[in-house]
Task: inverse folding
């Protein structure tokens, strides 16, 4: 499965440039077969750029609602909020420690800030936070944590993907394994950079944007405000020299684009070209606009969607971070092995922490047990039993079942709320324990292997 990942910084209100350059192509790509998509709200990145808490929160809501209204399917795509994933800042630090400072000195955003300071006769780093400087490392963590192959971004972000590759390569080189996939940027060639009202790239920083969710009237008014040259009606116009035309092209079919080219050559008036453009944009956005308004009116629903998304991707992130921690040497004391893979496979020393069953009582009075691995992470939770003795008997029965039979009886990837899960059975038809919801069949298989490893560990420890 090819993994496609992209983030959108939660500052401001989404504008047409975000839509054309990032949201639309990413949603289209997420519908292709054979891709697993990760879309997230980059709210940690937002903190670097803005310091108004209410605006950050509002913008997170608006951007989440925008993606959902524009057709993102959270069942098909991993849709989550960066700040719900503690593994991201954790990985940021591991990466920071292998990142050459000089690499970050060369990052465009930082360099531009320095140049501005120097031009103003200020100290080079005046007003520049370490957050801005670290921006590319945080972004590398976003991408590398999920081993993304492809990162759809605007042209201005391509350097950041190159930096992520550099960091990944260096980490892989230092820690002797293919821990990270090297990501590639993908830029949609024709429309990736949409001009704004003044003809420069549409961007919050130039204050030249057209907000995505204007009503039809306000949209028309904004489009009328796009700067054109002074050529009058009837004068032939050069479409390739017109940002109005570039915006038109981003919303038109190839036939419509061709027809508009001819209209330019025939001297269409700017006013008329603008009317046609606003009608075209409205055609594409009218239906999503209604969905958007309904979603923003009901934030609780979006919140639940994001929380579910975070729970799913953390199933992927957690074991990977564990591997990386071991690889760099952050290990339980007494654990041996120098690389991640070797350490994972290394036997636990006698007396060290081991996988175990933990019995507990639920509020309903019934007794359940949890199968935990050596790190204490829960792999599966049992059904309820009337007494601790019965819970214990079920544990013994599970351990006494030969591994091949457990594998045959288990349902690996049974559908459940929030994804799929592993169901462990006794005697083929008696469910005895379940994993948490997992994102996909691969994750379920991986989880089953961890369950088997834990059971094997418990059985070995119990053997005389
Ligand atoms: N920096 C990106 C932007 O401003 C947003 C972003 C954060 C991102 N993390 C990412 C994009 C990871 C792609 C992948 O547009």
Result:
């Amino acid at each position: 499965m090819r993994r496609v990942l992209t983030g959108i910084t939660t500052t401001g209100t989404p504008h047409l440039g975000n839509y054309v350059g990032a949201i639309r192509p990413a949603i289209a790509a997420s519908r292709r077969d054979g891709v697993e998509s990760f879309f997230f709200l980059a709210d940690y990145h937002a903190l670097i750029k803005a310091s108004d808490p209410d605006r950050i929160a509002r913008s997170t809501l608006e951007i989440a609602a925008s993606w959902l209204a524009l057709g993102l399917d959270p069942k098909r795509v991993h849709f989550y909020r960066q700040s719900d994933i503690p593994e991201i800042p954790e990985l940021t630090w591991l990466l920071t420690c292998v990142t050459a400072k000089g690499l970050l000195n060369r990052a465009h955003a930082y360099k531009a800030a320095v140049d501005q300071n120097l031009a103003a006769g200020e100290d080079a780093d005046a007003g520049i936070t370490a957050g801005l400087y670290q921006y590319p490392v945080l972004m590398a963590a976003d991408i590398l944590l999920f081993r993304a192959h492809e990162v759809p971004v605007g042209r201005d972000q391509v350097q950041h993907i190159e930096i992520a590759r550099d960091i990944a390569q260096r980490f892989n080189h230092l820690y002797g394994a293919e821990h990270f996939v090297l990501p590639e940027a993908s830029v949609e060639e024709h429309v990736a950079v949409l001009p704004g009202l003044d003809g420069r790239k549409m961007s919050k920083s130039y204050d030249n944007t057209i907000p995505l969710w204007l009503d039809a009237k306000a949209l028309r008014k904004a489009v009328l405000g796009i700067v054109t040259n002074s050529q009058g009606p009837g004068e032939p116009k050069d479409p390739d020299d017109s940002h109005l035309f570039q915006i038109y092209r981003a919303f038109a079919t190839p036939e419509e684009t061709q027809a508009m080219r001819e209209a330019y050559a025939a001297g269409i008036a700017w006013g008329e070209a603008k009317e046609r453009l606003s009608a075209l944009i409205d055609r594409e956005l009218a239906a999503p606009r209604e969905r958007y308004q309904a979603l923003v009116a009901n934030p609780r629903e979006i919140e639940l969607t994001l929380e579910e998304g975070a729970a799913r991707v953390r199933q992927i992130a957690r074991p990977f971070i564990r591997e990386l921690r071991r690889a760099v040497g952050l290990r339980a004391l007494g654990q041996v092995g120098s690389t991640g893979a070797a350490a994972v496979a290394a036997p636990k020393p006698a007396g060290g922490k081991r996988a175990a069953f933990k019995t507990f009582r639920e509020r309903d009075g019934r007794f359940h047990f949890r199968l935990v691995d050596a790190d204490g992470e829960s792999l599966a939770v049992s059904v309820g039993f009337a007494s601790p003795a019965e819970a214990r008997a079920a544990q013994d029965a599970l351990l006494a079942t030969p591994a091949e039979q457990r594998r045959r009886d288990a349902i690996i990837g049974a559908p459940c709320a929030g994804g799929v899960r592993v169901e462990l059975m006794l005697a083929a038809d008696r469910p005895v324990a379940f994993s948490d919801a997992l994102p996909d069949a691969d994750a379920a298989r991986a989880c089953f292997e961890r369950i088997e490893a834990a059971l094997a560990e418990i059985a070995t420890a119990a053997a005389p």
The two ends are 45 Å apart (CA to CA).
